[in-house]
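Field reference: sequence -> structure
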Amino acid sequence: MATAPAEDQRRLLDVQALDTRAQQLAHQRKNLPALARLTELDGQIADLRASLVESRTRVADLKRELTKAETDVEQVRNRAARDQQRLDSGSVSAKDAVALTDELISLAARQSALEEIELDVMERLEAHEDALAKVEAANDALVADKAEVEAERDAGWADLDAQAAALATERARAVEGLDAALVALYEKLRAQLGGTGAAVLNGNRCEGCRIDLPPGDVAAIKSAAPDAVVRCEECGRILVRVAGATSPVA
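Structure field:
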């Protein structure tokens, strides 16, 4: 049976308590409420992105369509203005005057039709721009929420990291001077058993696995030399005997 000073074994419980607290801090860091909220916001932003791209594309298409409609109307107006100018000049023949008059009538009808198209495009563009503005406002609100939650997450991380750093310093002091073989065994068991390598023997219960040990095992443990490193027969953890223990020390 391995041995280590009884005081070192008792001090090992302090190390275990610090390690347990470090585990709790690590768990808190991975499970900050802000992280779940960020995941939710990322999903909402992703869902909105498709609508945003579609709406922006539709607005861009309608702007090009409006530019074309405006160009078509302008071309007809310019042609009509030139025809009217020629007609007003009085320098054309009667035959040409009739042709110009007929063309002006045709151009007027064409202009009216094109202006209807232009108006329709303008109305559709206005509706889509309004829809786009609403989608962009919703997206901006989500992005702003995300930035706020990220700041909350970073502040939470900074606080937990500061606690972990202080804990690491305290842990280094707690383990200093302990029996090297005892610490090595503890570290090995801690890695194998979910972070708990040592536990107090509380009455006949191992507070590592929370199992009541058989009377024979308890008697053997209690009769072992104070410097004997005893292990729980159920979970294999180091069992530390503390006089009057009534609660877990971990």
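Note: Helices lie at 6-30, 33-89, 94-175, 180-192, 215-223.
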